[in-house]
Structure to design on (121 residues):
């Protein structure tokens, strides 16, 4: 899913180490949607590089587009929702958007240029 929102606040960065000793980081941030009836959403972003890039490039008050997933989990008989951001775009001049986390070269279209105008079926 994707939503256009304005960053309201960043919360404290959480850090730790995995079993193999690698460092991890996560940060929660609050954003308000840009709809007729705005809603506030608390997003979680996980990943050392993603968190560092986000905090370097985006500040409270910035307009962004957030790509995210929603999932529910049960804990001690109660259900909780998690809203996990996996990409944040910040609008650039000219109406284009630049991702805060860079996409890899593998994200390119493998079928680009294969269109000969014929249907494959």
């Amino acid at each position: 899913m994707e939503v256009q929102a304005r960053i309201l606040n960043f919360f404290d960065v959480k850090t730790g180490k995995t079993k193999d000793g690698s460092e991890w980081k996560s940060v929660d941030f609050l954003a308000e949607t840009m709809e007729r009836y705005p809603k506030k959403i608390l997003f979680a972003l996980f990943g050392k590089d993603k968190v560092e890039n986000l905090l370097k490039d985006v500040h409270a008050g910035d307009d962004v587009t957030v790509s995210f997933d929603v999932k529910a989990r049960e804990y001690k008989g109660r259900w909780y929702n998690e809203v996990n951001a996996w990409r944040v775009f910040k609008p650039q001049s000219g109406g284009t958007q630049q991702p805060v986390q860079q996409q890899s070269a593998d994200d390119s279209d493998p079928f680009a240029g294969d269109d000969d105008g014929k249907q494959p079926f």
